[in-house]
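pinging the channel bc i need a second pair of eyes. not urgent but kinda urgent?? the chain im working w is below, pasted from the shared doc
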Amino acid sequence: MDATLRIFSGSAHPELARAICRHVGIPLGRSYTHRFSNENLKVKIEENVREKDVFVVQPSCSPVSEGILELLILIDALKSASARRITAVMPYFPYVRSDKKDEPRISITARLMADLIRTAGADRVLTMDLHSPQVQGFFRIPADQLSAVPIICDHLGKRDLSNAVVVAPDAGEAKDAARVAKRLNVSLAVIDKRRFGDDERPRAISLVGDVRGKHAILIDDEIATAGTMVEAVEFVRAQGATKVTVAAVHPVLSGQAPDRLRRAEVDEYVFTDSIPIPKEKMNERITVLSVAQLLAEAIMRIHDGRSVSALFA
């Protein structure tokens, strides 16, 4: 065991942190978080971290605001305890969709999150499959972005894909879907969506490609309310797809998403454990793949000063 490496977890996803520690071969660091009656948080590091290389695992999930604050307090506590280097391990980054100023007088909140993490005392960030690549540029400290898409592709590649086609749910996902199609050695289709008049919701009007009689694999970086994805499922079914698989890295599953997924005519959902899925949001068609080994390898490479880019393939 490396005496200078420590891994701590916030309250968001301790199961993932423990799995990472098993792969690294060290115990999870001891810390304590208490919520007072006035909703203030107290975080205490319960072991010596002086001159240690510390990694803090805390993806963004419900309750989002409390999780962000807990992470910032954890980082500050570690900094005050004289940790040599602190890396925030955030498989799912908070406010990642707020990446541009597309309305007057709004915050680019993803950039604010990056600034807050640095100000709290983090020296580095490790994240995964950002919704928008430009978010990586918001950091003024080193930031590594991993991808769990190869893990999903390896899972899908274990079955017969001779009749499969990867489908991008909209044109914005076409580039990423094309990479998946190439990796799986299958064809690609893209759903064409258009807005009509002042209608704020784009509607699928055509399909570039063919899914008739085929196994359609719909892939996205995340599923939040599942409205767009379920509409895409209905559309490819109407176009003649005989089997449908939905895959996404981040199972946000907010709002009506769990009910929508249960009702949708989907044969299998493939998600990762970048975010924990509560039992009440699970259903029997959901397969959850672990990203713990990938994160553990990245942590060990960062700790040893080795290149992380080998993990990006």
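so The two ends are 28 Å apart (CA to CA). and The chain has two domains: 5-147+292-312, 150-289. — does that match what u expected or am i reading it wrong
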